Amino acid sequence: MCVSPTRFSRLAQLFAPVLVSIALSGCVSSGQQARPKGPDPYYVAMYGPRPDERFPLPATDISKADPRYLRQQVPYATYEPPGTVVIDTQDRFLYLVQDGGMALRYGIGVGKAGLEFAGEARIGRKAEWPRWIPTSDMVAREPERYGPLAGGMDPGPTNPLGPRALYLYQGDRDTLFRIHGTREAWSIGKAVSSGCIRMFNQDIIDLYSRVPEGSRVVVLQAEPPIGPPLDAPVATVADGAPLSF
């Protein structure tokens, strides 16, 4: 069948938008298929290197991290006032309570069974690139591992406390319980430490900048996160041993 030039021109005008739309959808589809897989660039930047630190920090590898444990603002229902740090050991989250029913949530690593802390405390001391000394109980439990370190370890990239540490006190007593960084990013979301709370290095630096000394800390084991403030500080260590990293 023959088509006159005039009619062909009208058909071309009629179907041109459809053809352009098909072509563009093909380009978009190809672009989506070509997009590399991996963590969101937003989080890659968040956990990027920190060359400005006293000991320059490399980027944290979050390629295998559960996205739930990456730092994010979330709705959070609690009676605790803004500025309170709530540690949910069961779900492996640390919350910094904010105004308006929100909180900044961080993923954490927690203590092994039998070495957990529960109750209330306050941040009695803050330290950048802290020195670490294993407790006498840790040396007694694992002399081969901790004996050579009984005199302490200087700050640095291999120090188990990482770039920052928050020391928890009850009254004037150091509980020996810490919130600190770790270079073992794989341990976030797990129960592997000797009792303290581990965070990604970039996260402990962020939290450290947000909480002053004296801030209230509530450590929950199996309790739900919402509940009235407790009247008196209570803390327990399941096996009676003091805690360190």
Write up what this structure looks like.
- The protein has 245 residues and is α+β, with helices and mostly antiparallel strands.
- The chain has a single domain, classed as L,D-transpeptidase catalytic domain-like (Beta Barrel).
- 23% of the residues lie in helices and 27% in strands.
- It contains five helices and twelve strands.
- The protein has helices at 5-34, 41-46, 136-141, 143-146, 201-210, and strands at 72-75, 85-88, 93-97, 102-107, 110-111, 117-128, 164-170, 173-182, 191-193, 197-200, 216-220, 235-237.
- Strands 1, 2, 3, 4, 6, 7, 8, 10, 11 and 12 form a ten-stranded mixed beta sheet that branches. A two-stranded parallel ribbon has the order 5-9.
- A hairpin with a 2-residue loop joins strand 7 (164-170) and strand 8.
- The radius of gyration is 26 Å and the shape is globular.
- The chain starts with a helix and ends in an 8-residue tail after the last strand.
Q: Which ranges are low-confidence, i.e. pLDDT below 50, for 5 or more consecutive residues?
A: 17-31, 228-245
Strand-residue proportion: 25-35%
Q: Assign a percent range to the helix content.
A: 10-25%
Could you give a short account of the major beta sheet?
10 strands, mixed
Strands, count: 12
Protein name: L,D-transpeptidase
InterPro entries: LD-transpeptidase, LD_TPept_cat_dom, Transpep_catalytic_dom
Keywords: Cell shape, Cell wall biogenesis/degradation, Glycosyltransferase, Hydrolase, Peptidoglycan synthesis, Transferase
Domain L,D-TPase catalytic: 83-220
Keywords:
245 residues; L,D-transpeptidase catalytic domain-like; hydrolase; ten-stranded mixed beta sheet; LD_TPept_cat_dom; disordered C terminus; transferase; Transpep_catalytic_dom; LD-transpeptidase
